[in-house]
Amino acid sequence: MTDTIFALSSGAPPAAIGVIRISGPRAGAALEALAARLPGPRHASLAKLRDARGGLLDEALVLWLPGPGTETGEDVAELQCHGGRAIIGAIETALAALPGLRRAGPGEFTRRAFANGRIDLAEAEGLADLLEAETELQRGVAQAMAGGAFSRVVSDWRDRLLLQSAALEAVLDFADEDDVTTLPADFMVRIAALEREIATWLARPRAEALREGYRVVIAGPPNLGKSTLFNVLVEADAAIATPIPGTTRDVLTRPVAYSGVPFLFADTAGLHDAAGDEVEAIGIERALDALDRADLVLWLGPEGEGPDGAWEIASQIDRGDGTLKRLARHRISAVTGAGIDALRADLVTTARAALPKPGEAALNERQHGLLRDAVRALGGARHENDPLLVAEGLRVARVAFDSLLGRTATEDMLDTLFGRFCIGK
Fold it and tell me: Which residues, 6 or more positions from 181, have their beta carbon under 8 angstroms from its beta carbon?
């Protein structure tokens, strides 16, 4: 944290403009070294940038942003130069030659923002998801987390818990005093209300499903058009589709978005008795594993033989020997396109109901686990008669809240999180 770091924060060159960000105690000195002056705070200024020998590097807009009111909480300088590779490379070389400056690692600017209290850990996790968002739904949910929606809720829970803990500690510390002998009458009511609120968050759809996409697995015996349907749904010739049984030997996945909703479609090996064919048997085993992990199965096989909750799909309706089903949810032909639009629309409606709502914060695995710990601790505290055990339950819940916001975080966990960011962020 004592180093001054720099990196290209805009897109990879060549581009119309390149933005090079400098953050740390020597950011101002670096700006003076290249621009020969320090412009007024927070005012863009045109300057000629020169290297240590006086050679002209570029003419650029420069910004001086003294801390702590910056993105990183440190002194920050920005160079908005032309976006050619040679120009950016020359400026970065000049910066690297200055004392106390070094190139930033992945996510190092955001990690400094976290370390300096500009953002908390939940906001940093949301920002990581925001940078990786590929659909409008992913963007909206990540924006809610990065904007502090979840952090504000957790902070409120923590403040309320601290009030109840203070009331409990007063009883423990001053039980022999006349004016403090019992807990407030509504003490356990408030704890129960807090527990219920947290439980509603645990019931929300998870962030992993949104990040990876709603997982739809196409399954059934061989030669029922699974690969052809897969190609139509992912809008690409991703799978080899032939009349030869056993063509698909492995699970093939492709991501795609419909109406801003992310999906992950999987084509699987035909399910049948593969006695004598070791490779095909492995493919069938992997297909069964994919069924177990699916959010939804499109079952093209005989009616009633698919997994529980699978959609019955009557495929190949353009053929006289197509799948016959009395209670098919959809009747389709991947060859002619019949019924495909209705199937897509149904998939979008179903996925939207199962995924987080637009603009609604969603929990990742780490956050979900910590809230689960908090609920268990509060539930246990409510059923205890010993005030010391009640106090311990409240303490465990508070530690979970602190971990959610990053007030207690291990270096390994932080390294993993901020390693998801690109260099320059």
Answer: 171, 175
Task: Give dist(CA 19, CA 65) in Å, integer.
Answer: 14
Residue 182 three-state SS: coil
Identify whether residues 164 and 256 lie together within a single domain: no
Q: Is the pLDDT of residue 397 over 90?
A: yes
Does residue 306 share a domain with residue 286? yes
Alpha helices, H only, 203-339: 207-212, 226-234, 278-293
- Nearest CA to 416 among 8, 71, 130, 111? 111
What's the pLDDT tens digit per position in 291-345? 888 899 999 988 998 889 999 999 888 887 655 788 999 999 988 999 999 999 9
How far is it, in rounded angstroms, from Cα 234 to Cα 227? 10
Cβ within 8 Å of residue 386, ≥6 positions away: none
How many domains would you assign to the chain?
3
Residues 105 and 136 in one domain: no
- 196 and 241 housed in the same domain: no
Neighbours of 370 (CB within 10 A): 19
Measured CA to CA, the distance from residue 171 to residue 385 in angstroms comes to: 13
Domain extent, residue 102, equals: 4-115
